[in-house]
Amino acid sequence: MQEYDKGLCGGVPFFINTESKKFLCGETSYEELKKWAVRD
What band does 31 get if pLDDT is binned at 50, 70 and 90? Predict the structure, then answer.
Protein backbone atom coordinates (compact mmCIF):
# COMPACT_ATOMS: atom_id res chain seq x y z
CA MET A 1 0.00 0.00 0.00
CA GLN A 2 2.79 2.44 0.83
CA GLU A 3 4.26 1.93 -2.63
CA TYR A 4 1.05 3.17 -4.29
CA ASP A 5 -0.39 5.52 -1.64
CA LYS A 6 2.52 8.00 -1.56
CA GLY A 7 0.70 10.18 0.98
CA LEU A 8 -2.59 10.35 -0.94
CA CYS A 9 -4.84 8.62 1.59
CA GLY A 10 -2.87 7.18 4.47
CA GLY A 11 -5.42 4.50 5.30
CA VAL A 12 -7.95 2.00 4.06
CA PRO A 13 -10.02 1.55 2.07
CA PHE A 14 -7.73 2.86 -0.64
CA PHE A 15 -8.25 2.07 -4.30
CA ILE A 16 -5.85 2.99 -7.10
CA ASN A 17 -6.26 2.39 -10.80
CA THR A 18 -2.69 1.83 -11.95
CA GLU A 19 -3.60 2.50 -15.59
CA SER A 20 -5.39 5.84 -15.15
CA LYS A 21 -3.58 6.83 -11.89
CA LYS A 22 -6.96 7.76 -10.38
CA PHE A 23 -7.51 6.92 -6.73
CA LEU A 24 -10.31 6.73 -4.18
CA CYS A 25 -9.99 7.13 -0.42
CA GLY A 26 -12.50 5.87 2.10
CA GLU A 27 -16.12 4.95 1.61
CA THR A 28 -17.69 5.60 -1.77
CA SER A 29 -20.91 4.82 -3.59
CA TYR A 30 -21.28 2.05 -6.14
CA GLU A 31 -21.73 4.64 -8.89
CA GLU A 32 -18.49 6.46 -7.95
CA LEU A 33 -16.60 3.16 -7.78
CA LYS A 34 -17.95 2.14 -11.18
CA LYS A 35 -17.03 5.53 -12.69
CA TRP A 36 -13.51 5.26 -11.22
CA ALA A 37 -12.98 1.75 -12.57
CA VAL A 38 -13.97 2.51 -16.18
CA ARG A 39 -11.15 3.58 -18.47
CA ASP A 40 -11.37 7.07 -19.95
Answer: very high
DSSP label of 5: H
With left for phi above 0 and alpha for psi between -120 and 50, is residue 27 left, alpha or beta?
beta
Phi-psi category of residue 22: left, alpha or beta, with phi > 0 → left and psi -120 to 50 → alpha: beta
Give the per-residue pLDDT at 22: 85
- Report how far residue 29's alpha carbon sits from residue 2's, in angstroms, rounded to the nearest whole number: 24
Distance CA 7, CA 19 (A): 19
